[in-house]
Amino acid sequence: MSSKKCMSGCEKRKRKKQRDELAESQRGSIDNFFKTSSSSRNSLQLAIVTVEEQQTENLDNINDTNEVDNNASQHENLADSPNSEIPSVDEQQPLTIDILDPRHWDNLDEKARHYLVENGPVREENIEFPVDSKSRHFSQTYYCRKMKNGEIHDRKWLVYSKYVDKVYCFCCKLFKSHKNKSSLAGNGLRDWKHLSERLRDHENGVEHIRNMNTWNEFRVRISKNKTIDKDLHHMISKEKERMRQVLIRLVAIVKFLAKRNLAFRGSSEKNYQHNNGNFLACVEMVAEFDPVMQEHLRRIKNDEIYHHYLSHKFKMS
After folding, report:
1. 82-107, pLDDT tens digit by residue?
2. Which of 189, 218, 248, 293 has its CA 20 to 30 A from that of 272?
3. Where do the structural domains in the chain lie, given as residue ranges?
């Protein structure tokens, strides 16, 4: 004979009430684990990737009475403790990532890369750079390159991450190839003793020059609204509008037949056959006067589209 005992309905309701009270008492406790950012950037300079983490707990299928009692006593002790920081089981907390920080640029999609190129590298001012064991640190002077003729050129491609105390190459980080093994295009560089030499070698490299050209060309296309993404987005929007117009007409036909309690299907589901039913007959009639439906039937006939919404399968077989 089994030693386990099933809980009664009253006991289940009691345990559920205790869990609800615990969740309500601990609501908002997870905020203590995260500190708000003190960055002074405005909303036009930040792109946030939000990742939601949800903690779930299921206690409805517990049959062992002793185990339920132990869990309930632990919950009650946590609820009575004023310093408890255990988050609610039903609470969700978003984690924010600063996309302008170069350490997050390894796996960017086209939308994020487009945003970074459009806004360019961001340099924060009045940063107190940390000092290493040899009393060396990064300096604002590395942002400029002094030529042999005395001219000063701005290294616009050089970006610094205050979170990891490293420098990166903006264009190489975004457009690098798999063959690029430079630290400035990978995990960052913190060799402050030889930084001037490392930067000079990097900016004279073939890979860096190629990525600089790619960056400049991409930036010009964005300014002229001639990017491939924009053309593709325009084509998708045009196709979505066409299908929306087709569905408006099909819904009108469905409403017409349904109000009069007429049969939709016939013995055939092919267009322009005498026994294909009332629905396709109405579609054919509308196509005689409407260019949108006429174009839709033409595409179906020429196998140019897969989903046509004219049969119970919603697509061509």
Report:
1. 444 444 444 444 445 677 888 888 87
2. 248
3. 9-98, 103-223, 228-301
